[in-house]
Amino acid sequence: MSETHEAGRSLPQPGPGAGRKPLGPGLYFIATPIGAARDITLRALDILASAEMIAAEDTRTLRHLMEIHGIALGDRPLVSYHDHNGATARPRILRALEEGRSVVYASEAGTPLVADPGYQLGRAAIEAGVPVFAAPGPSAVLAALTVSGLPSDRFLFAGFPPNTASARRKWLKEFAAIPATLIFYESPKRVSEMLTDLVTTFGTDRQAAVCRELTKKFEEVRRGTLSELAEAFAGQSPKGEFVVLIDRPRGRQAGPEDVEAALRERLARMSVKDAAAEVAEALGLPRREIYQAALAMEKDE
């Protein structure tokens, strides 16, 4: 138990969940750290301390996290729930929920349902009419997007690519023309091969970022064109968790109708300067050119 000092006296401080009212019935999804243990939120700790049943993708990882933060499991059930046992573990969790109990689910790391088996559990709870809640927190997707330097106004998380080269290249082609920042997870064993396939599929000059071990001791972010990054990782056998991000395509020049439609939508809610900057970024066009077009539209109104 932590302590604080006041007027020369040591006063005990309550741990997580102390003095809290019991949770209402329902399924609570909590996000857990992707690296630094202190990244978990206070609300998530309160839920862990108060829930009547705890389910986790990796029970050992969660028990360790609870020990770090001084949360006792006590006599509460801790249920393993992952890709390989969902069909058998889900009914037990649903029974507890239908009995009006509070159940918390935590993925091994990050936000549940993002490349995580919690999706089927959440669907089943909703279909059973059970309240479902989310306590937001750590996410490798959003952490990577934040440090990548790539546009964040529109992005698509695509998950893990297929393992084999032929299937991966075919799969990647589906995303090549999407006008958004693309975000992928990848195994350290295949990140070099994936970058090579991205050069083949997306071209050499697309801007990209490769994030490794986010929030951990050996955190690393490399930025550059796909060809530069493919060359940097060629022949390497790196370790850690990887997130690969790719900028939207910039080759196709938007037509006047595209510019007009994009500006009209934004001018209804922001200044000429801000609208022009956002449209220029979104369409990959010179900002001065778009600014002049925006001024002309304002004058005609």
Identify low-pLDDT runs: 1-15
CATH architecture of the largest domain: 3-Layer(aba) Sandwich
Overall radius of gyration: 24 Å
Instruction: Average the pLDDT over all residues and give the rounded result.
Output: 89
Number of self-contained structural domains: 3
Q: Number of DSSP helices?
A: 11
Strand content: 15-25%
- Biggest pleated sheet: 5 strands, parallel
- The CATH topology annotation of the largest domain reads as Cobalt-precorrin-4 Transmethylase, domain 1
The CATH superfamily title of the largest domain: Tetrapyrrole methylase, N-terminal domain
- At the first level of CATH, the class of the largest domain is Alpha Beta
Report the order of strands and helices: EEEHEHEHEHEHEHEHEEHEHHH
Strand order of the largest sheet: 5-4-6-3-7
Class computed from helices, strands and strand pairing: alpha/beta
Q: What is the percent of helical residues? A: 25-40%
* DSSP strand count: 12
**CA(first)-CA(last) distance:** 66 Å
Using the alpha-carbon principal axes, give the shape: globular
Walk me through the structure.
The chain has three domains: 11-138, Tetrapyrrole methylase, N-terminal domain (Cobalt-precorrin-4 Transmethylase, domain 1, 3-Layer(aba) Sandwich), CATH 3.40.1010; 141-246, 2-Layer Sandwich (Methyltransferase, Cobalt-precorrin-4 Transmethylase, Domain 2), CATH 3.30.950; 256-300. 39% of the residues lie in helices and 19% in strands. The termini are far apart. It has a five-stranded parallel sheet, with helices on both faces. It has a five-stranded mixed sheet with strand order 8-9-12-10-11. Helix 6 crosses helix 7, helix 7 packs antiparallel against helix 8 (226-233) and helix 9 (256-267) crosses helix 10. The protein has 301 residues and is of the alpha/beta class. The chain is globular and about 70 Å long. It is built from eleven helices and twelve strands. Residues 27-230 form the Tetrapyrrole methylase domain.
